[in-house]
Specification:
The chain has 255 residues and is α/β, with parallel strands linked by helices. The protein has seven helices and seven strands. Helix 5 links the parallel strand 5 and strand 6.
């Protein structure tokens, strides 16, 4: 029986990119718990398959090797999902990277390009393939993992935050272009306990204390929101990016 906190996704098929750990793996777990069949992607076959073994629920989980910016692998993954499960109803563009840490004027082009390629082009690529292969005719839901960095500025994260700001805009653009068949939404987390944010854990108490809700995020905080946006419970929502930040954008707690 589906948990009352997880909307029913029985009979749906989902692809989650960058799903070998952290937020992506939590999203796959939550979607499967809601009854969806889930294809988890990772850069290596071993990581993708190992992640799929960790997913439990009514839905079936399988791993697939596909880098977020590899068009041939992405196309093969979309075809695999449709052939294996008979549809492609949900796409979660979760894969992201942040190699461009530092002041904008010190970032070389290679790191800039890698960040934009993965964080912005990747979601556009996968959405295009999913829509042309299935969703354009049958309908579906796309959810993009952005960041509150796309809404405000922070030292040394200029390229990453710019990529996420652009993704928030692209979410709106795709929602307009693909309506009414396909809904496109996003989530914008603050600091979540993942490998990408591991450097901040050395001062977790300080960071958590600055948030009105008094803690950093857990991957499940994001995955439950993604499941909602992907489900029929959000059937009249498109073009929105849901902030999941423990109140961080409100300002520092106690000040």
């Amino acid at each position: 029986m589906t948990s009352p906190l997880i909307p029913s996704l029985n009979g749906r098929t989902a692809i989650v990119t960058g799903a070998s750990r952290g937020i992506g793996l939590a999203i796959a777990q939550t979607l499967a718990a809601g009854g969806a069949n889930v294809v988890l992607t990772s850069r290596t076959k071993e990581n993708a398959e190992e992640a799929a073994k960790q997913v439990e629920g009514p839905g079936t989980a399988v791993g697939f090797q596909a880098h977020a910016t590899d068009e041939d692998a992405a196309r093969a993954c979309v075809a695999f999902a449709i052939e294996r499960f008979g549809s492609l109803d949900i796409l979660v563009n979760n894969a992201g990277t942040n190699p461009a840490y530092g002041p904008l004027i010190d970032i070389e082009k290679s790191r800039f390009a890698k960040t934009l390629d993965t964080n912005l082009w990747g979601p556009i690529l996968w959405t295009s393939l999913a829509v042309k292969a299935w969703m354009g005719e049958h309908g579906g839901s796309v959810v993009n993992t952005a960041s509150i960095g796309g809404i405000h500025v922070a030292p040394n994260l200029g390229v990453y935050n710019a990529s996420k700001a652009a993704l928030i805009h692209v979410t709106k653009q795709l929602a307009l272009e693909l309506a009414p068949k396909v809904r496109v939404n996003g989530v914008a987390p603050a600091v979540v306990r993942t490998k990408l944010a591991a450097a901040l854990f050395e001062r977790e108490e300080e960071v958590a204390g600055s948030y009105p809700l008094g803690r950093i995020g857990e991957p499940e905080d994001v995955s439950s929101a993604v499941a909602f946006l992907a489900s029929d419970a959000a059937a009249w929502i498109t073009g929105e990016t849901l902030v999941i930040d423990g109140g961080a954008l409100l300002g520092q707690a106690g000040v």
